[in-house]
Amino acid sequence: MNKKYKKVNPNSYFIKNSTNFLTTTVGKIILTFALIFSVSSFAQDLDLVQGKALFNANCAACHKLDKKMTGPALRGVQDRLLKDEGLDKEWMYSWIRNSASLIKSGDDYSNKIYAEYNGSAMTAFPQLSDSEIDNILAYTAQEKAIPVVNTVQAVPANGNSSSGISNEIILGAFAFVFLLLALGLFLVNKTLRSFAVQSNIELPKTNKSSRKPLWKAFVDNQFLMLCSAILMLLVSAYFVYGFLMQIGVNQGYEPVQPIHYSHKIHAGDNEIDCKYCHSSARVSKHSGIPSLNVCMNCHKTIYEYNGETTEEYSKEFYDGEIQKLYKAVGWDDEEQEYTGETQAVKWVRIHNLPDFAYFNHAQHVSVAGIECQTCHGPVEEMEIMYQYSPLTMGWCINCHRETNVKVKDNQYYEKIHEQLSQKYGVDKLTAAQMGGLECGKCHY
Amino acid sequence: MSSNKNKKYWKNLADLNPLNNSALESLEQKEFIEEIPVDEFLGDKESLSNSSTTRRDFLKFVGFSTAAASLAACEGPVIKSIPYVVQPEEIIPGIANYYATTIGNGYDFANVLIKTREGRPIKVEKNKLAPLSASANARVQASVLDLYDSFRLAKPYKNQVESSWTEFDNDTNKKLNSLKNSSKSIVLLTQTFASPSTYKLISEFKKNYSNAKHVVYDAISESAALDAYEAKYGTRGLSNYDFSKSDLIVSIGADILGDWQGGGFDSNYAKSRIPTKGKMSRHIHFEANMSLTGANADNRYPVNQNDQKLVLLSIYTKLFKSGSDLNLSDRLNKVVDSLFNELLESKNPVVVSGIQEIEYQSLVLEINQKLNSKAFQPNKIILTRQGNDNDVESLIKDMINGKVGAIIMSGVNPVYTLPNSDSFIEGLKNTGLSVLFSMKNDETAQHVNYLAAAPHYLESWGDVEMTQGEYSITQPTIRPIFDTKQFQDLLLLWNNSSVTYHDYLKSNWEKNILNDKTWNQALHDGVFENKKSIRSRASYINSKNNFSASITSLANSITKNPENTFELNLYSKTGMGDGQCANNPWLQEFPDPITRATWDNYLTVSEADAKKLNLYLEASTFFTESKNGADGGLNGKYAIISLDGTDIKVPVMIQPGQAQGTVGLSLGYGRNRGVKEVMMTGVNGYKFFKNFKSVQSIKIIATDEIHEFACVQLHNTLMGRGDVIKETNLEIFNTKGSNVWNAAAVVSLNHEETPVSSPSVDLWDEFDRSIGHHFNLSIDLNACTGCGACVIACHAENNVPVVGKGEIRKSRDMHWLRIDRYYSSEDSFENDDLKKDNISGLGSSLSSFKEMENPAENPQVAFQPIMCQHCNHAPCETVCPVAATTHGRQGQNQMTYNRCVGTRYCANNCPYKVRRFNWFLYNENDEFDYHMNDDLGRMVLNPDVTVRSRGVMEKCSFCIQATQSVILKAKLEGREVKEGEFNDKVACAAACSSGAMKFGDINEKDSEIYRLKEDDRAYHLLDTVGTKPNVVYQVKVRNNKNS
User: Fold this and answer.
1) DSSP-assigned beta bridge partners for residue B707
2) A436 touching B, CB under 8 A?
């Protein structure tokens, strides 16, 4: 397999971030206004916002609007029941408040649906008032909104674009000015020559044959030769050194993974904490790739993608990736059960320290409280995960030199800090002062 | 003057008589034994000139290959990471889990804690809840590697053809049922299980099949002692001895620090050996071979077994004032007289014996009962040996006569361990159904109908009752790697029971063993004590003396060894035991504590006998002369030993301290099936284990063939630095100040004697280590028995590679921790003479007084574990051109493998010779086909420690991964490191059951390690050099008496 590399300019990250921030804030403000107005127009009789909130809080664990889950799909349920079964709102009220007693009473449809869902009883919601149920039903009665495919690239692909344009303008202006200057000079020269011809002044003729060619002069000048040879050697040494030093440094490594897992959607859009999935980073040396049962905590109910899409990453594409997960973990989405046929996902490892370097996530994440992004970059914006940092020893050491240890509230450090400050007047405690530069701390 | 000033320390005979030994001289001159053999390809001018490769071509090749190599390096490999589909709750990748379990393989029994990483067991540790006597020895420490043995059986076999368990179950069930009412018997031939649940199952099996018999077979038999105990106290077991309670231990041929009567006595023995308040136990030892126990004794008398018997008999007659005078030699008489006086004087004397005869074992019980020492504990019955020799003998007869219909074997390998294995094979042919439960396709497996693939103990359920009332549980720590089934599961099947052995075990425990404790708690602890069944000690001690045999007739029955024969003493080695772990490369490479030999067994012969028999190699041929000088390997001649028509050619090792007229040979070697070819080392001593007796009378014929041994330590020389060992005796220790017996080294500064510890004579400034942690390791030479458990623990913890016999012979052993063994003797013969009048020169076999002047006859022995000393002023650090070895603030001398370029300068400059160089790539290399060369074997590697590559130095790291994990734990919990949390965190100290090694933080001023460092007995190795090590040794104190 070939590795794919992407050069990362750390500056671009900040620029991109700030512009994003602006657009999102503005967007949010507009959205809030829009929501307020749209809600207020409905608010008199049925509260759709409350309905949605209630639905998400009480029903969503077992019901989806458009898909059978633990319970049936609920879009337009009231109309459907009224049309097909002749059941009115009152029936709905009693079913929702206490389905068990309705089943017991021998109600036909209740028993039918109870049997259809393998005798899994619906939780009773006696706390819901009539109006609240009305709101929920109103929410379920909404027409399915056709998702608007965002044909425009959702995120500006290149954060530099704005600065890039201004650069081009400036460069273009410069080129234009230079062109004007060159033209001016040419015209001046032409005019002067024509003056000279008119005044019968003989122009000195250049004797081309008598002059040594430049290259020959250069070859004859031994000093110049030597200097340029040394210069050439130095320059090539510089490049060779640069080439050699990047061997084994996989910064920007961005392999294709067996499942297209988007950190942007999970950590960015949905703001899932890194350590929810990479939980062992808190306690162990490994951050750990989450096992598939962790994915299923959410994806048992999230079977489709409803976020922003682009041409490359369409809804179908994302839904297909979720299906890959189901296949690997052996989840039958139709029957809502595990088949037991699993297959491990062979992820391609991106961050790979050599065997002779010991790195412990818990020390950095839990003890030092370093953000994951410090080393792994803006993961929440990465559609495809890549290696952000060089992971070289110089990079490690630099951080150990500069970073102050989080002494506060950690008695282990407090004790040593106190001893050091008493004896040597140490004010701030860096990782290096704690022995973080000793070879044996990472190489054993 | 320190007492060792008039002593001479030596490591081998050449070292003892260094005059005119050019080979030794050349060894002394060389830092590394062998030069890089450039001559081999550059020295030959002719072939060089004939070569078509010109210098220019050569350079082109070099340039091209360099370019190719660097291009190849550009593209990194794609590494896959595969997470669990469903992660088990208890497993967090990167965090170790520990499970308490128990080994009981019929020879070794121990309570252990298994460290597992990501679900695979990687190390055996001590279970601190278990009694000391059940601590892991070197073999148990290494047993985790047997789990990942590539030679293990992966499925059952039927007549040597792969089969399935369904077929196996059906066939055996059918055949056993057809035998149910037959006149032929069904025999279960098993190891000693000492397992209450298994014994219950077997008794149920016997009920189910009325013609079933159970025969227990111990390869190395303790039958005589069991018979004696059974005759006296009514239970088949062995008496227990707590040597920590004894002040005088008299051992007559009992290897109490080895595998005598089940082993495990060393931890308690060592406890009383540390002088406290001026007192320590005294140990007097009679034996023929130089054993680990003899090496630790205060006074050791090399005598043959006849003399041992006489000593025991005369102690009995003197004690009970019965019987007439015995025919003892004058010297022996003198020894026994003074010994008897000491016995009367001491408070808790104890006498033990290894003589494999029921009469003598009965005598021992009577003597101890009379002495009534607290150390003698007959009520704590040892159950780890149950074998019955007579049963085995009659079984073989029955089998040959066709009286046995079915034989089911588990945990035994009789074709290998029986001397008359041919008749056993014949018997198997006459037996209709033969089933063997084995982990390997071993010697016996070749001859059975059904071969059942048995699981390793780390994949099995079980229970063990090592001493009566002390129960322990075996639980699996990994899913069975192969398609294996336990013997007990099949017993249940044959008993028509449908429960699994786990359920059977649990219900048996809940019903019969556990009183108030829950099963889960017992499983967590691994051990459970139920003392209800134990009778009081008094009820045993007060039992009647029922010894009836006549002492005189016993004395008369001692037959003199026939002319021209030698007394062969078969023994088991610390590393190999009874031989079931022969395919374990760690144990093959484990240096014998006494001879320091690896990968071999041999005939140990005394120097005088060797000269007599023409088995002695003169000093000049002692070491092989190689092209570049001596390669340092020790050589020996081959001899042919014979007994009743069995001839074996065996290499001879000259053993100082071997009783004259006796020779020794270890069991457990000479395997030829079920082990890798490189592990088929040594000769099979069981061929001489006739009638289950370890002492035989054999003939020896010398040959001219030469055998090459691979010994560690003997390669190098002491270089005149005899003061690495400091020792004194109890009298001087108690009466004189430490400046006498532990004088600090002094150097001359301005013509004044200044202690080397003084800053004014130091080249370097001191670094302040009082903040944070500062680690020290203390090694007590008194408590160290040389057992070597630490060596294997270090191997397991630090991924130390196995290099093989050839490399060991070239001094390229990789052990980070070695236990040096030094012999010592009085330097002058005058001193020797004085001593010899009293202690040495025993036994009828000694012919002339002159021979006794040879110090090699009965040397004193000292063991000294040596690893990197972690010098605060380390000589290695200053010479490294690339700063690959540096010093940590916590006291460790750190070795950075990825920085090392392999100049080996550091090893040159190390005064302790603890640095090891990776001459080759030892992993994934077919040339070193040990566990690191296959995927299964590599599962044992510790993921926290780098596997080193070719061309780098390595050495002890003070297990920095372990101390770092303690620190990290404290940091994660936001607290200071608790007092004593670092104690014994390093692998060697954690494995040490005798308490000789103590590790800790000396910045904790109340800690034991701080006290030990400041102790009067503490000294640093070669303190004259001024290296200021972080390893301290405690002066060895002997409790020997010269008069």
Assistant:
1) B636
2) no
Domain A48-140 listed as CATH 1.10.760.10:
yes
Percent of chain B with pLDDT over 90: 50
Whether B76 sits inside 8 A of A415 (CB atoms) is no
Q: Report yes or no: B786 and B863 within 8 Å, Cβ to Cβ.
A: yes
Domain ranges of chain A: 48-140, 163-202, 215-247, 263-403, 404-444
* Tokens 């633990």 found at: A70
Tell me how close the Cα of A302 comes to any Cα of chain B, in angstroms: 18
Contact B457, B104 (CB under 8 A): yes
What is B239-381's CATH superfamily?
Dimethylsulfoxide Reductase, domain 2 (3.40.228.10)
User: What pTM was estimated for this model as a whole?
Assistant: 0.83
* Inter-chain residue contact A292 with B974, CB threshold 8 Å: no
Could B974 and A409 be called an inter-chain contact, meaning their C-beta atoms sit closer than 8 Å?
Answer: yes
The DSSP string of A27-62 is HHHHHHHHHHHHHHHHTTT--HHHHHHHIIIIITTT
**Angstrom distance (rounded) from CA B26 to CA B465:** 56
Residues 6 or more apart in contact with residue B27 via CB below 8 angstroms: B33, B623, B629, B630, B632, B715, B716, B717
Q: Tell me: pLDDT of A207 over 80.
A: no
User: β-strands B885-887, B96-104: how paired?
Assistant: unpaired
**CB of A189 less than 8 A from some CB of B:** no
Most confident range (mean pLDDT) of A215-219, B673-677, B840-844 is: B673-677
Can you give the C-alpha Rg of chain A in angstroms? 35
Domain boundaries of chain B, sorted by first residue: 157-174+185-221+387-525, 239-381
Q: What's the rounded Cα separation, in Å, for the pair A164 and A161?
A: 5
Checking B731-737 for CB contacts under 8 A at 24+ apart, the result is B732/B3, B733/B275, B733/B278, B733/B1035, B733/B1037, B734/B278
Q: Which of A293, A346, A355 sits opposite B80 (nearest CB)?
A: A346
CATH number for the B157-174+185-221+387-525 domain, one of 3.40.50.740, 3.40.190.10, 3.10.100.10, 3.30.590.10? 3.40.50.740
Distance CA B232, CA B228 (A): 6
Residue B272 CB burial class (10 angstroms; 0-12, 13-18, ≥19)? buried
Please give the residue of chain A at the shortest CA–CA distance from B890.
A435
Cβ–Cβ contact A390 with B under 8 A? no
Note whether B976 contacts A412, CB cutoff 8 Å.
yes
Q: In angstroms, rounded to a whole number, what is the distance separating the alpha carbons of residues A284 and A365?
A: 10
Distance from CA of A442 to the nearest CA of B (A): 9
Q: Could you say which residues from 967 to 986 on chain B have a Cβ atom under 8 Å away from some Cβ of chain A? A: 967-968, 970-972, 974-977
**Confidence (pLDDT) at B21:** 59
pLDDT of residue A364: 93
Summarize the confidence of residues B806-810 as an average pLDDT: 86
Longest CA–CA span in chain B (Å) reads 97
B69 in reach of chain A (CB within 8 A): no
Return the residue in B84, B893, B950 with the most chain A beta carbons within 10 A, the one to mutate for interface testing.
Answer: B84
